[in-house]
C-alpha cells in the first residue's frame, strides 16, 4: 500500500482558489516492447484524483471514504501503455477541511497524493507538479452540496499538459507530506468496489441556437464549427436522455473568447427558489422553457491548433440531458470541435429482466434501469445533479432494486457499512453517509435495518450480516428509549444545522400537505408519530427475522416481544380514529395521510380483510395526504400484502414519460431533481409481485412463485439469485388461472402453496423446470402480515 505522501511545495502559490485546490502531477515512463509492461499502480489521495495514461482518462478515485476508513485504488494500466515513451498524468483535487466543497467527500487539512507501482513512478524525483492557479472551484447555487463548478483562465493553464511533447521543465518536484500522527486518514483499505465505467458517448441533436453562426448540427457529425470575431452565440445540445458523464471541450484559436457551459436536466420555467422550488412541465419544451444550471466558464487563450487543440475537461462528472454552449468571441474567430462525452456510473452487470403483454411496462422498466444507473457511482445517490449524497431511505430502495437486476452486491455492502459506522454508535445512524455535514432523520435508521435484512434475504451471507448485530441493537434501543407509555414514539424537535451540531429532521415524505414543514407530518404537542411508531414495529420484526436467520434466537424473541408490546399499547391508545376508521398521524387530530395506513399494514397492526378494506379506502380518499414517489415502494408492497394489488397505479410514472422525462423525478412538490432512483419501483415490483418471485430463506435456497397478474395476459422475466438466474413465464386464461413455467438454478427449491395445482418438476444437473397452475384470482393475501418486513 502507498505510504509516501506528496504535494506541491511552492509556498509562494495561493493555497487554493475557491473551495478547492487542484495540483497536476506528470511523469514519463519508458518501456520495452512487451505486452505486460508494469505492475499495477496503487493510488490514494486526500481528497480526489483523476488518472490519465497517454492522454486517456483511465481511473477516478479514491472511492469515497467514511470518517472511519480511507481507500487506496489498485489500477492495472497495461492496456493503456505502449512500447517507448508513456506519459502518466494525475490531477489531484483537495477540499480543505472546514469548507463545504463536495459534501460527500471526506478530507483533512493536509492535501496529499500517494502513488506506488513501478520503480520509475515511486520516487518524488519521478514526478513534476504544478498548482492549477488558472482554475477556481465554486460551490454553485444549484449544486450547493457539490462545490464542483469551475472558472478557468486558460492564459495561465498549461496548454497540452497531457501530451508527450509538453515541456514541464518549469514545473517543480513534489515534496513529501508528513501527515499528522495519528494520521486522520487512518489505515488505508483496498477499494471495496470496482472502478466506474468510462464509456464514450455523443450528443444526438441540437434543440436551440441563438445568434449568427454555422450549422451547429456539424458538431453531431464530428465536424468543427467556427464562430466569427465579435459574436455572441448560444447552442443547446441534446444527449437524447439524461446521463452522467465527463465533458471535454476542445477549441482552436479564438484568443480572448469566453465560453460558458451549462449542463441541465431539462427545459423549465424560471425557478421559484433556486435550487429548491422549480417550475417544470414538458422537459423538452425549448420554446417556452429555458436551461438553468451553474455554469463552467472558460477564458480562451487562443493556443489551440489543429492536432493540438486547447482543451477544458471539468474535474467532476456532470449530470446532463442538455448542454448549453455560450460563446462570446473577441477579435479572433473561435473554432469549436465536437464536444466529447464519457459516460460514467457503477458497472452493474445486469441479468435481471422483465417483459409482459404491456408495452408500457417495458418503458417503465427501461426508464427505471436508466434512473438507477445514473444514481449509482461510488455510492448510491439521491440525485446526481444536485447532491450526490447517499441517504438511507433512498438507498434501501435502490439496493433492493439493484438486487433484482444483478447479483453484484458490492455497492450495497459498502452502503450498509457506511451507515453502520456513521453517527453515534449508541444511537442513530446518520441519515446520509459519507458526509462531512452530519444530519439525523430518525426514521432513516430504521430503513437501514430493513436494508440489512433484505440484503441477507437475497444474498444469504450470514457472516457479513452478523457484524452489524450491535449496531442494530443500538438503533432499536434509541427508539425503545423514545417510547411513551401509550405506545407512541416521541420525536426529537426539528433543528437546523448549527456550528458543532448536526441537523435533526423528522422527514417522512415529500407530499404537498407537508410542504411547509419540509416533509414532516403534524406531530401534535407531544411530538408523537404514529408513522414512526409503525416503522419501529416493522423494524423490530425485520431485526427479529435477521437475528433468527443468523442464529440469535434470544435477540429474535426479544424483538418480537417488544413489537407485540408496542402494538398492544397502540390498540388502547388514540392512534385509531374510530369515526373516520383510519389511523391518525399523531395522538391527536384527524387522520391525515395514507402513510399511517400503509405502515399499519406493513407493521402487522391490521391484517386480513380489515387491512384490505383500510387500504382500499385510503388510496381513493382525497382527504389523506398521498404517498409520493419516495414512499410508493412501501405503498405498493402494502397493497400487495392486503390483497388490493389491483390498485397499484402506474399513472404518475406514465405522466412523467408524457412530459419528456427519461429518468424518474424526485417529487411533484418541489419539482427539483429529474433523476431520483427511489422512483424505480418497477425494478422490484415487477419481478417480486407481478412475476411473484421472492426468496423464502436467505440466498434463495427456497423460493415462492406467486404472481399477481392484474390485467396482463402474460409476463416473463429473469430474477438473479446467488445460485444462478431464475426464469419465469406465465400466461393468464379467461378464468384468471395462470399457467406458469419456471426454470430454477441448482440449489433453489420451489415451495408450493394451496393455490398451486398440477405441479410438475423435472431436473437435470443445472436446473429444475417447474410447471404449475396458479389461482391468482383467489388471492387475498398469501403473506403473513406478522412477518411482513421480511417481504418489504
User: What is the helix content?
Assistant: 10-25%
Kindly, what is the distance between the CA atoms of the first and last residues, rounded to a whole number of angstroms? 41 Å
* Count of separate DSSP helical elements: 13
The rough form would be described as globular
What profile does the largest beta sheet have? 12 strands, mixed
| Classification by helices and strands | alpha+beta
Per DSSP E runs of 2 or more residues, the count of β-strands stands at: 38
Ranges where pLDDT stays below 50 over 5 or more residues in a row are 779-792
Beta-strand percent range: 25-35%
**What gyration radius follows from the Cα positions, in whole Å?**
28 Å
Report the mean per-residue pLDDT as an integer: 93
Amino acid at each position: 500500500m502507498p505510504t509516501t505522501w506528496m504535494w506541491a511545495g511552492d509556498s509562494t502559490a495561493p493555497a487554493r482558489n475557491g473551495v478547492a485546490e487542484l495540483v497536476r502531477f506528470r511523469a514519463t515512463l519508458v518501456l520495452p516492447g512487451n505486452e505486460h509492461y508494469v505492475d499495477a499502480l496503487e493510488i490514494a489521495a486526500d481528497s480526489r484524483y483523476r488518472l490519465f495514461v497517454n492522454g486517456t482518462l483511465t481511473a477516478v478515485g479514491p472511492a469515497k471514504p467514511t470518517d472511519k476508513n480511507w481507500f487506496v485504488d489498485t489500477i492495472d494500466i497495461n492496456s493503456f501503455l505502449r512500447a517507448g515513451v508513456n506519459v502518466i498524468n494525475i490531477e489531484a483535487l483537495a477540499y480543505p477541511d472546514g469548507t463545504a466543497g463536495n459534501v460527500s467527500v471526506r478530507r483533512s487539512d493536509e492535501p496529499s497524493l500517494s502513488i506506488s507501482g513501478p520503480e520509475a513512478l515511486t520516487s518524488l524525483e519521478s514526478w513534476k507538479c504544478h498548482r492549477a492557479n488558472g482554475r477556481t472551484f465554486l460551490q454553485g447555487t444549484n449544486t450547493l452540496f457539490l462545490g464542483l463548478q469551475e472558472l478557468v483562465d486558460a492564459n495561465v493553464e498549461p496548454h497540452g499538459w497531457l501530451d508527450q511533447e509538453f515541456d514541464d521543465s518549469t514545473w517543480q518536484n513534489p515534496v513529501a507530506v508528513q501527515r499528522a500522527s495519528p494520521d486522520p486518514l487512518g489505515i488505508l483499505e483496498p477499494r471495496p468496489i470496482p472502478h466506474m465505467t468510462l464509456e464514450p458517448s455523443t450528443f444526438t441533436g441540437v434543440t436551440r441556437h441563438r445568434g449568427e453562426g454555422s450549422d451547429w448540427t456539424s458538431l453531431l457529425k464530428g465536424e468543427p464549427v467556427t464562430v466569427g470575431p465579435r459574436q455572441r452565440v448560444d447552442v443547446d445540445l441534446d444527449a437524447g436522455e439524461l446521463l452522467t458523464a465527463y465533458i471535454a471541450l476542445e477549441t482552436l484559436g479564438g484568443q480572448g473568447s469566453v465560453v460558458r457551459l451549462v449542463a441541465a436536466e431539462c427545459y423549465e420555467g424560471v425557478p421559484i427558489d433556486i435550487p429548491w422550488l422549480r417550475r417544470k412541465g414538458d422537459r423538452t419544451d425549448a420554446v417556452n422553457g429555458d436551461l438553468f444550471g451553474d455554469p463552467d466558464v472558460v477564458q480562451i487563450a487562443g493556443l489551440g491548433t489543429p492536432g493540438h487543440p486547447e482543451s477544458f475537461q471539468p474535474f467532476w462528472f456532470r449530470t446532463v440531458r442538455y448542454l448549453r454552449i455560450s460563446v462570446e468571441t473577441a477579435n479572433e474567430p473561435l473554432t469549436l470541435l465536437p464536444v466529447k462525452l464519457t459516460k460514467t456510473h457503477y458497472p452493474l452487470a445486469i441479468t435481471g429482466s422483465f417483459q409482459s403483454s404491456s408495452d408500457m411496462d417495458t418503458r417503465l422498466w427501461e426508464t427505471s434501469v436508466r434512473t438507477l444507473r445514473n444514481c449509482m457511482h461510488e455510492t448510491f445517490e439521491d440525485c446526481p445533479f444536485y447532491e450526490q449524497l447517499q441517504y438511507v431511505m433512498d438507498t434501501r430502495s435502490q439496493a433492493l432494486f439493484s438486487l433484482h437486476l444483478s447479483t453484484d452486491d458490492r455497492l450495497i455492502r459498502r452502503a450498509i457499512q457506511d451507515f453502520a459506522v456513521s453517527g453515534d454508535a449508541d444511537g442513530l445512524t446518520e441519515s446520509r453517509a459519507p458526509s462531512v455535514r452530519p444530519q439525523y432523520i430518525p426514521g432513516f435508521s430504521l430503513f437501514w435495518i430493513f436494508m440489512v435484512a433484505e440484503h441477507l434475504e437475497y444474498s444469504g451471507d450470514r457472516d457479513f450480516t452478523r457484524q452489524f448485530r450491535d449496531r442494530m441493537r443500538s438503533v432499536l434501543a434509541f427508539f425503545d428509549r423514545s417510547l411513551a407509555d401509550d405506545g407512541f414514539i416521541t420525536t426529537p424537535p426539528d433543528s437546523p444545522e448549527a456550528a458543532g451540531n448536526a441537523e435533526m429532521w423528522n422527514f417522512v415524505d415529500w407530499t404537498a400537505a407537508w410542504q411547509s414543514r419540509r416533509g414532516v407530518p403534524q406531530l401534535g404537542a407531544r411530538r408523537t408519530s404514529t408513522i414512526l411508531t409503525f416503522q419501529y414495529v416493522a423494524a423490530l420484526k425485520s431485526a427479529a427475522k435477521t437475528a433468527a436467520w443468523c442464529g440469535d434466537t434470544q435477540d429474535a424473541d426479544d424483538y418480537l416481544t417488544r413489537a407485540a408490546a408496542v402494538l398492544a399499547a397502540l390498540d388502547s391508545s388514540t392512534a385509531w380514529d374510530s369515526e373516520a376508521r383510519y389511523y391518525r398521524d399523531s395522538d391527536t387530530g384527524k387522520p391525515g395521510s395514507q402513510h399511517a395506513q400503509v405502515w399499519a399494514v406493513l407493521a402487522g397492526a391490521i391484517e386480513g380483510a380489515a387491512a384490505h378494506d383500510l387500504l382500499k379506502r385510503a388510496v381513493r380518499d382525497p382527504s389523506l395526504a398521498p404517498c409520493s414517489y419516495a414512499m410508493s415502494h412501501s405503498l405498493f408492497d402494502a397493497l400487495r400484502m392486503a390483497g388490493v394489488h389491483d390498485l397499484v397505479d402506474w399513472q404518475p410514472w406514465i405522466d412523467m414519460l408524457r412530459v419528456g422525462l427519461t429518468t424518474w423525478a424526485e417529487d411533484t412538490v418541489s419539482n427539483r431533481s429529474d433523476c431520483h432512483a427511489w422512483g424505480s419501483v418497477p425494478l422490484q415490483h415487477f419481478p417480486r409481485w407481478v412475476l411473484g418471485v421472492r426468496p423464502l430463506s436467505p440466498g434463495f435456497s427456497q423460493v415462492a412463485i406467486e404472481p399477481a397478474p392484474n390485467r396482463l395476459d402474460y409476463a416473463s422475466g429473469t430474477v438473479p439469485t446467488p445460485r444462478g438466474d431464475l426464469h419465469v413465464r406465465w400466461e393468464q386464461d379467461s378464468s384468471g388461472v395462470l399457467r406458469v413455467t419456471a426454470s430454477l438454478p441448482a440449489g433453489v427449491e420451489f415451495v408450493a402453496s394451496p393455490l398451486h395445482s398440477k405441479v410438475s418438476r423435472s431436473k437435470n444437473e443445472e436446473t429444475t423446470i417447474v410447471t404449475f397452475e396458479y389461482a391468482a384470482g383467489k388471492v387475498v393475501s398469501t403473506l403473513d402480515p406478522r412477518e411482513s418486513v421480511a417481504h418489504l
